Amino acid sequence: MHNTKFTITGITIVVLAIVFACQPKLSIKTAQYATNGQKLYITHCQNCHGAKGDGLGTLYPPLTDTAYLSKNRAKLPRIIKYGMNETILVGGHEYTGPMPPLPSLTEIDIAYILTYVTTKFGQDTEIYSEQEVRKGLSIPTK
Ligand code: HEC
Hints:
- By secondary structure, the protein is mainly α.
- The chain has one domain: Cytochrome c-like domain (Cytochrome Bc1 Complex, Chain D, domain 2), CATH 1.10.760.10.
- The protein is about 55% helix and about 5% strand.
- A two-stranded antiparallel sheet has the order 1-2.
- The chain is globular.
- The model has no long low-confidence stretch (mean pLDDT about 90).
- Heme C binds near residues 60, 63, 69, 86 and 95.
């Protein structure tokens, strides 16, 4: 049944098109990254940052501060892989951490997650590529 493969691909594209119909500017590739990223987000991030990325009180910062996300875009892969323990200002509130590291996530996992976060909670329409993740991880910490 070699047609099954095409049917599944067809169904996947239709589902993606429906899921991201509210964001028509996303390319199919970006939408696929975001869909994969959503699954990883639910497993690894949602407990703290919430299903809608709105954080939790004064403990966990929201991921909806587009100014913070775009200003710190290059740092995002490191925050995920190595965690964070600083005083930061997000959405007008101070957070002091810590966020635990997630060393088991691969570069492509992080690209999926960051595409989901920056397109779903932020306003980006561009993919967060694996290459951009690799570059971000290679920037030395202060
Ligand atoms: C155990 C709770 C926890 C988990 C799990 C967690 N975070 Fe965080 N995250 C935090 C805390 C706390 C901070 C603030 C860190 C600081 O102030 O140094 C933070 C900060 C951030 C920031 C920078 C500030 C902001 O709000 O934009 C980003 C981006 C982020 N987390 C994304 C993620 C992503 C993506 C995941 C999943 C891969 C994740 N976090 C998993 C608790 C968590």
